[in-house]
Amino acid sequence: MSKNIALITGVTGQDGSYLSEFLMAKGYEVHGIIRRSSVDFRERIAHLEGEPNFHLHYADLSDSMSLVRLVGKVQPTEIYNLAAQSHVQVSFDSPEYTADVDAVGVLRILEAVRANHLEKICKVYQASTSELYGKVEEVPQNENTPFHPYSPYAVAKLYGFWIVKEYREAYNMFCCSGILFNHESERRGETFVTRKITLAAACIAHGKQDCLYLGNLDSLRDWGYAKDYVECMWLILQQDKPEDFVIATGIQHSVREFTILAFKYAGITLEFKGKGLNEVGVCIAGPSELIGKELVKVSEDFYRPTDVVNLWGDPTKAKEKLGWNPMTTSFEKLVEIMVKHDMAKIAADNAAANIRKTNLAEYLEKGIVK
Ligand code: NAP
Ligand code: GDD
């Protein structure tokens, strides 16, 4: 039997790291694309480096030739195109770059497959998004819900979705989009709202931060666990026929609800008072020094020019055709995992800082450092 060879773009990201682990456990040879940066910061995949079936290559989604060369060299049987400028708010500040990577980048991947004559051999998974539904036209959203993108990020991803569909029909390629709703984890980037909240809850509980500033607390999301979602990416490529799938839990919560639960797992009970920019989250139970303090405030800085506020996915097709269970990790468990991780991280950071302080005091006393 021929070997399964996966090429993952975005391997250093949240999903890329979980997908690498998942595919390696299935016996795949995994190749990942990395970008040159002034600091080599590959925390999420550091534990995989050095494994005989894990290989990293420099390339960039904005550089066609690097992709054509790499696809030719690796000869993948499956490509998972996860690379993207993935932050919606940042797409308002860098719209052209976002379009180049998130829209044209998808085309470059498809063309790299064609240029190497791998259309019949190599399947392509495209990381599409619930942001396509944007200013939603119905709830919950399924594969037939009309798209209404509502940010430069979503508009770029819409091109990615349609070009994948076009290449599927025009060239008979096995390429599909997973329309994934928000999925989070202890590896989530620190500026996405869930991780920003779990880290802040941990910092506040450890006395390292006074207050958390957020934007729209009413925004509703269908949040799942990233580790569960990467299985779907693989399942989508194992079907007999290439198709697009909505991947979601089918359950919706607000940013405010996420915040209350995260602080609860950090040992702090919050009560929200006031409205709009004047809304605050006050500590009503927990460590005595925090009682009565306003620990969460709203800042206009985190409002978006246009915000997507009502995402709620219907995973029926994924359940029926992929046999996938969207409830493997509940919302409560997800928040608990993230807060536990961040509480331990802040405690470890504190301990390391204390050791540094003690060492420095000792060195100063001995006259080693002046
Ligand atoms: P992430 O943590 O932000 O990771 C993004 C990855 O893309 C990183 O590895 C990044 O590399 C890489 N990348 C960015 N620009 C690149 C470029 N020009 N060339 C090559 N690589 C580049 O994102 P994620 O949460 O894992 O999401 C994975 C994909 O799913 C993204 O396409 C995202 O838009 C999509 N998606 C995510 C969600 C979600 O809730 N997480 C939901 C729906 C869709 P560096 O490490 O070098 O920056
Ligand atoms: N980031 C952030 N920071 N968002 C905030 C904040 C804040 O301080 N306060 C409120 N929000 C609201 C945002 O306005 C948005 O409505 C919601 O929280 C979620 O924001 P993010 O966590 O940044 O994620 P996102 O939904 O915009 O985008 C993520 O999910 C998409 C799938 O729906 C990203 O992972 C995208 O790449 C992905 O496609």
Gist?
By secondary structure, the chain is an alpha/beta fold. The chain is built from ten helices and 15 strands. It binds NADP nicotinamide-adenine-dinucleotide phosphate (NAP) and guanosine-5'-diphosphate-alpha-D-mannose.
Structural account:
- There is one protein chain.
- The protein has 370 residues and is of the alpha/beta class.
- Helix content is 40%, strand content 17%.
- The protein contains ten helices and 15 strands.
- α1 (14-25) packs across α7 (226-237), α2 (64-74) packs parallel to α4 (95-115) and α8 (255-265) packs across α10.
- The model has no long low-confidence stretch (mean pLDDT 96).
- The protein binds NADP nicotinamide-adenine-dinucleotide phosphate (NAP) and guanosine-5'-diphosphate-alpha-D-mannose (GDD).
Number of helical runs? 10
Total DSSP E strands: 15
| Tertiary shape | globular
Strand neighbour order, sheet with most strands: 3-2-1-4-5-6-11
Q: Can you write the helix and strand succession as a string?
A: EHEEHEHHEHEEHEEEHEEHEEEHH
Helix content range of the residues, please? 40-55%
Structural class: alpha/beta
Topology:
Layout (H helix, E strand, L loop, with lengths): L4 E5 L4 H12 L3 E6 L19 E5 L5 H11 L3 E4 L6 H6 L1 H21 L7 E7 L22 H20 L3 E6 L2 E2 L8 H13 L6 E3 L5 E2 L2 E2 H12 L7 E3 L5 E2 H11 L3 E5 L6 E6 L8 E5 L17 H7 L8 H36 L4
Parallel strand pairs: 1-2, 1-4, 2-3, 4-5, 5-6, 6-11, 7-10, 8-15
Antiparallel strand pairs: 9-12, 13-14, 14-15
Helix pairs in contact: 1-7, 2-4, 4-5, 6-8, 6-10, 8-10
The chain binds NADP nicotinamide-adenine-dinucleotide phosphate (NAP) and guanosine-5'-diphosphate-alpha-D-mannose (GDD).
